[in-house]
Amino acid sequence: MKRLAKAPDRQDDLKLYRDSQGDIYTIHRYSNTLTNWTQNRTKTWADLELLK
Question: 23-48 burial, b for 16+ CB within 10 Å, e for fewer?
Fold first, then answer.
């Protein structure tokens, strides 16, 4: 295995998820951020957007 650049480590206390295509994700609940580590993409939602 090869460590992805800027990937979280154990101290970040984030759970890793893998989708059916093999991409690796983390979800940071407090900042409402979804990170796709495989594609190096991040999306953050405002609380107001999540309530819609």
Answer: eebbeeeeeeeebebeeeeeeeeeee
How many residues are given for the chain? Answer: 52
Render pLDDT for 18-43 as a digit per residue (tens, 0 to 9). Answer: 999 999 998 887 888 899 988 989 99
Distance (Å, whole) CA 42 – CA 27: 10
Contact 35, 42 (CB under 8 A): yes
For residues 50, 19, 17 and 2, what is the CA-based torsion angle, rounded to 10 degrees? -130
- pTM for the model stands at 0.66
